[in-house]
Input
Amino acid sequence: MQLGFYFDQTRCTGCHTCVVACKDWHDLPPQTSNWRRVTTHEKGRFPNVDVSHLSISCAHCARPACATICPEEAIYKRNADGVVLIDAEKCTGCRACEDSCEYGAIQFGPGADSKAEKCTFCVDRLEKEESPICVSACPMRALDFGDIRALSSRPGIVTSIPPMPDAAKTGSSLIIKPKTAATKG
Output
């Protein structure tokens, strides 16, 4: 099985609750890493303006470039659920993984001795059969998770939208219901 995230762009209001919940749950210091990020995208000219939001974290790729490039084999993919994790004990902070991740998921804290960090898919919560904190916290229910095959069967979905990279390259485990002209409202 490969776990993945589902993001319904038609429901997201850009409130950043998912970002705050993630930082709080994982005790991430303020003004440092954001394991989940929300970006806002505007296009058009008045009076035909469109605003959309994108909530993204690590895509827990089927073929994670970060794991392939890590010289210490500190980044690995769990066989049971496909979640990509970092072994902080093995990480030397070389930053090769940071450059290889097209999603900008891998981040480093301040200081020369910082280690790679990123979304863990809340494996601590999964072990208790709970949803990742970003999914649980979203007031608009724009985020969901599950087996990527089941998520892929939902109607009107895609695997990437601008400005995201091509999902086929690494096998991103992120499914998106994009905001389109038909879904505005």
The chain has six helices and nine strands. The two ends are 36 Å apart (CA to CA).
